[in-house]
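Example record used in the benchmark description.
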Amino acid sequence: MRIAVLSDVHGNLEALDAVLDDIARQGVEQTVALGDFLSGPSDPLGVADRFIELGLPSVRGNHDRYITDGRDKDWHIDALVRGLLDARQRQWLASVPATLLLEGDVFLCHGTPRDDNTSFMDTMVGTTPTMHPRDYIEAEAAGFDHEVLLCGHTHVPRSLRLADGRLVVNPGSVGLPMEIGSPDARYAIIEKRRAGWNTELRAVAYDHAAAAKQALDKGYPYWAEALTWGWASPKGL
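Model output (structure tokens):
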């Protein structure tokens, strides 16, 4: 079994289509998505329509929840996207579950199994992604006894084994790679073989300049900077 894993598209249709094109060459049986689909200035409506068309097994991200439910202090881009969505797009986004179990073996979440806004394997120390201690990661995985735990949220690609052999995978970000020094779109392929599950973390070149220009044209220069270089501006997005 080969499964492609997408996360954190953040409204970047250029990156999403490049990844989907790459997946089409990989002989996968299934593609899944881990949320934060639309929260970005490049082409969130195009991304919404693409996911509605694809109908992939998916879970929502924290920004998907912020778009549908709101929060006390809205991130500007979430409020912007909320105002752009039509009824069909809003209904789709609101229907995406918080977690999902695939084939009894593969558990999908956005942040951790318990919280879409908590990081599983990595955290940010200033602007540097830093891996959590082993005890923290083991505690977050406790009680979720599935062979594979898939998560997103941090935009940092990583694959690790828990003490009992369970696999935890973050595919990185399709549409907003930050603090990894490359603008390439990221995703993962997991494959079940006789000895267990394998992970392939993939980087896909795409026309990131076009996505950055879309962000810049819509008044988001720091977002454009992140899309251009793969580093977040110290001034934020």
